[in-house]
Specification:
single chain; seven-stranded mixed sheet; five-stranded antiparallel sheet; 33% helix
């Protein structure tokens, strides 16, 4: 059996400062240690306790080089580096199930640490077939297209109480933090976090064995609506002939599959980052 883990940082316990999130941040080393401990306890439970043969881990925050590689066990395959095709779910195709670790709430969510959707610098709102999505739902829709169900989501309680319970009711939700606001939260001690993750991983695996976990599906063709934070990003997006400008900041396009929609969305976000770099140099 093969398990896939996608790891983000903002939904991890104790991560409340921007200094945790950037390579040159004063607290980045702390965040890397937390991320490595969290992903290792899940991988060890999957392999040693549950007999999963292979664990693929997609390091999926920022530059995507957050996990300490010298602490990665030999049964793990580690996907790292950015930019890369299909970003947070690169390497997931062919897996039996997926686990999301350190995931956060979508942009505009109150009482949620670092709420954003994919790119906090450029994206204000993202819809797939009329459903406003978080990174959890965006990634789950693509995995669902590949017949890979999401069995567990561990992260901010605000995400679990909203998107996970509503759209992924079969998945185990493990709250790693309860946020007071964008830059503050409370979490159990690390030993308590590890216990929650072990228990959640075992329950998620049992649900997979019982056939209770389902791929998240959506209709095709896929309609995408994307509202940017800046009208300049929409101006660049509408240069593509298949992208329709709906208002100053919002664009719309259709794709034949979620994978095609995901890749197009990635390109638009990277183009927006390019615009930002040009105007601020």
């Amino acid at each position: 059996m093969r398990a896939f883990i996608s790891l983000d940082l903002e939904g991890l316990p104790y991560i409340v400062s921007r200094e945790n999130l950037f390579v040159k941040g004063a607290l980045y080393a702390e965040a890397r240690k937390i991320a490595t401990e969290v992903v290792r306890v899940v991988a060890e439970t999957l392999h040693h306790e549950l007999g999963v043969d292979e664990v693929v881990i997609a390091d999926s925050h920022g530059p995507m080089v957050n996990i300490l590689v010298d602490e990665t066990p030999d049964y793990v395959r580690l996907v790292r580096g950015f930019p890369r095709p299909l970003s947070m779910v690169a390497g997931a195709k062919g897996s039996d199930f997926a686990i999301f670790l350190g995931y956060h709430a979508k942009a505009g969510t109150g009482h949620a640490t670092f709420d954003h959707t994919y790119s906090g610098a450029t994206v204000d709102r993202l819809e797939i077939n009329g459903v406003e999505v978080s990174e959890t739902l965006l990634n789950a829709y693509l995995l669902g297209e590949w017949n890979v169900p999401v069995a567990m989501v561990a992260g901010d309680r605000a995400l679990i109480e909203a998107d996970v319970k509503t759209h992924l009711p079969w998945a185990v939700g493990v709250p790693l933090k309860e946020s007071f606001g964008r830059y503050s939260a409370v979490s159990p001690g690390m030993e308590g976090i590890k216990k929650l993750l072990r228990e959640g991983t075992v329950e998620a695996f049992r649900r997979v064995e019982r056939g209770e976990v389902k791929p998240l599906e959506t209709e095709r063709p896929v309609e995408v609506k994307l509202r940017f934070l800046n009208s300049a990003y929409a101006e660049v997006a509408e240069l593509l002939p298949f992208v329709e400008r709906l208002d100053g900041k919002t664009v719309r396009f259709e794709a034949e599959s979620v994978e095609e929609a995901y890749k197009t969305f990635e390109v638009l976000v990277l183009a927006s980052a390019g615009v930002n770099s040009i105007v601020n140099r």
